[in-house]
Amino acid sequence: MSLKKKRKNQAKILRNFRALHRSMGALLFVFFFVISISGLLLGIKKNSGSLMLPKTQTGTTSELKNWLPLSDLKEKAIRVLEDSVSSELSTELDRIDVRDEKGIVKFIFAKHYYGIQLDGATGAVLSIGKRRSDVVENIHDGSIIDNYLGTNGYVKLIYTIVMSVALLVFTITGFWLWYGPKYMRKTSR
User: Fold this and answer.
1) Which pLDDT tens digit goes with each residue over 93-124?
2) Helix axes 3-43, 154-187, angle to 10 degrees
3) What is the widest separation between alpha-carbon atoms in the chain?
4) Cβ contact 93:116 at 8 Å
5) What angle is formed at CA 50 by the lines to CA 41 and CA 112, rounded to 5 degrees?
6) 3-class DSSP state of 143
7) How far apart are CA 140 and CA 31, in angstroms?
8) Among 155, 67, 164, which Cα is nearest to 118's?
9) CA–CA separation, 58 vs 53, rounded Å?
10) Ramachandran region of residue 77, left (φ > 0), alpha (ψ -120 to 50) or beta?
11) Which helix (H) or strand (E) covers residue 157, if one does?
């Protein structure tokens, strides 16, 4: 293959990569914007001064043998939610986060993003707070749409696959857009 034809071929590949890069960028701009902003917020959540996530408190003891039964703590957390926040809110739990080294148990509710921290030994309320980072995480990974539509994770799965493949294609095409001209100059000598 002649040098001129080889260079023409390389230029054509470069143009195709540029077109693909530009088209995908225009098509997926909003999604990448949302992912980048939500990713930034998730990255700083523990340093947000309790704006994104209530600070993890410290209980009286980390000795589990001195703790109240988890079922009693759960009942207490539900009572606290109903009495201190609202009796209208769902008491369905998303998860129970046991932090034995801190002496606390976090009860995170599924439908409204409230979290209640109780002392594991005494059951004392250490914190009642809104977990805004959970909302941001649901936006970041697309599960907020799943929750709204009730699609059992399928929208999140498709969203994750599409965005992951798109990021991979952006990385490859972006690298080639940077390296391609250098390669063409080097091979044309």
Assistant:
1) 999 999 999 999 999 998 888 999 999 999 99
2) 140
3) 82
4) no
5) 80
6) helix
7) 9
8) 67
9) 15
10) alpha
11) helix 154-187
